[in-house]
Amino acid sequence: VKPKPGDLIEIFRGTYQHWVIYVGQGYIIHLAPPSEHAQAGAYSMMSVLCDMAVVKKEQLRDVVGTDRYTINNLLDDKYKPRPVKLILQDAHSLLGQELPYCVFSGNCEHFVTEMRYGKAESRQVGDSA
C-alpha cells in the first residue's frame, strides 16, 4: 500500500517507533532529534537525553533505511483528520525549525498526531499532551 499525503507512517526501530508524516512524491516530514536516523540502533536511545529536535523533510526511503514501516493513521477512529491541505501547509511551515523535544511529552509521535488531528498524543508513552 502506497502512502497518501497526510498519512502517518510508523517506522520500527527495534526498541521504539519513529513517526513521520507523508507529504507526497516519496517525501516525509518529521521531528528529528540529533540521534534519529536509519540504523541508529542503541544510539537512538540518546534521544531521551535531547531537549531540542529539528523539523526535517527527507526521502521516506532514506529515513526508513532497512527498518520495517507501516502506514498507521492510529487515531482516525478517535478524531477526524484535518484537511490534507492544512496538514501539509502546517508541516511545511515548520521545516528547519528547532522545537523543544521531550520523549514523554513532545516526541515525534506527538508531532505527527498534532499535524494530522490537531491533538498531540503518543501511545508509546501512554500519555497525551
From TrEMBL:
One Gene Ontology term, aspect cellular component: cytoplasm
InterPro entries membership: H-rev107_PLA/AT, LRAT_dom
Keyword GTP-binding: no
Gene Ontology terms: biological process: N-acylphosphatidylethanolamine metabolic process
Keywords of this entry: Hydrolase, Lipid metabolism, Transferase
LRAT domain residues: 8-124
Lineage top rank: taxon: Eukaryota
GO MF entries: N-acyltransferase activity; phospholipase A1 activity; phospholipase A2 activity
Gene3D superfamilies, A to Z: endopeptidase domain like (from Nostoc punctiforme)
Family: Belongs to the H-rev107 family.
Name of the protein in its database record: LRAT domain-containing protein
